[in-house]
Amino acid sequence: MADILEMKMPSPGESITEVEVAQLLVSNGDVVELDQPIAEIDSDKATLELNAESAGRIEFLVEEGDTVEIGQVVCKIDTSVKPEPKPAAAEPAKASAPAEEEKVETKAEAKVDMGTSKATPVAKVMIHESGAAASKIQGSGQGGKILKKDVEAYLAAGFETSSEMIGWGGSREENRKKMSSLRRKIATRLVSVKNETAMLTTFNEVDMSYIMDLRKKYKEAFKEKHGVGLGFMSFFTKAVTEALHEFPAVNAYIDGQEMVTHEYADIGIAVSSPKGLMVPVLRNAEQMSLAEIESGIKALAIKARDGKLSLDEMTGGTFTITNGGVFGSMLSTPIINPPQSAILGMHNIVQRPIALNGEVVIRPIMYVALSYDHRIIDGKESVSFLVKVKQMLENPAWMLFGGKEPEKVLLGL
Q1: For a surface tag, which of 52, 96, 140, 285 has the fewest beta carbons within 10 Å of its beta carbon?
Q2: Quick one: 339 and 398 in the same domain?
Q3: Cβ contacts of residue 379 below 8 Å, gap of 6+?
Q4: How far apart are CA 68 and CA 18, in angstroms?
Q5: 128 is catalytic
Q6: Which domain, by its residues, includes 59?
Q7: Would residue 245 show up in a list of annotated catalytic residues for this protein?
Q8: pTM exceeding 0.85
Q9: Do 156 and 188 lie in a common domain?
């Protein structure tokens, strides 16, 4: 007799009453294992995995795109059906590795119109990606087959532009796809920030040569000792936490008629993920060393990439840092992440001419931007905060002394 388990949609977090089924990871009739991911669900705060509560044959009662209330039955699992034991892994043959020419999926080959020409799988992919005309490439393989080296030689020599290469071959068709609940919530929040805050942005520039020289000098020793690379984000996070201590209004938020300040710095770090931009939070970053910050950011970025971030890791930040420079952004006005009152935007590093000691020199310069809520942060505070961050980045030793010049600390000034 079948033993049926009804799986109900669990609550992913406080105040969430419904979620959306983003993707079913298994099909009806599949036999799943205990804790195997069976679906991805979108809430208004994060994308989470739904795991099987028991092993057995699964039958879904919902479809992709459905909105499901918390506590609603989403599937049934026949626990009398057990997964077949996995066969032992066979000993890999010690045959020589196949030639690079054969290591390409056949679906990539099907995208290429070769006409009467013949080519190896790798050469076909190269022709497809480059937009070259196969008929114009002289093959040196058996029977005139085009090899990888033939495509490389053809591309290196330059080739004529054909009508096939003009534009990207678009059509007049339109495609519609329902926005995920997460994307809809982000849209609502961004519009509300623009409408409900007095948001302004102030800018400055940072000479990154000091930090770049420091990284170059110690990056190998740092990685060897701490097991993590030394990036720019840890320096910015450390500088921000010290500046927040000096300018607490930037680390505050409005609650009704009150301004709430924090005696800690929970820094939201904007990271890219397959689901879009996510902002996990680094708790008590003001207490962390550079190595601890780098390790924390790395762990959060991996979780974001793999869709493993929890709601707790996505909520409660007091200040946010976003780095558009990794995508090539020169300058932007980042939008505040509510209920926070400020956000720092980093940008790309470009060699620029600047005046230094009466001379024009070339230095690696980054433009930085601080967007802030003018209702609780005055212009003087916002500008002073950004200047303090700039000073610490250009003089990293200041971070050891709470953003003060080491000489003045030594002299008690």
Answers
A1: 96
A2: yes
A3: 200, 202
A4: 6
A5: no
A6: 4-78
A7: no
A8: no
A9: no
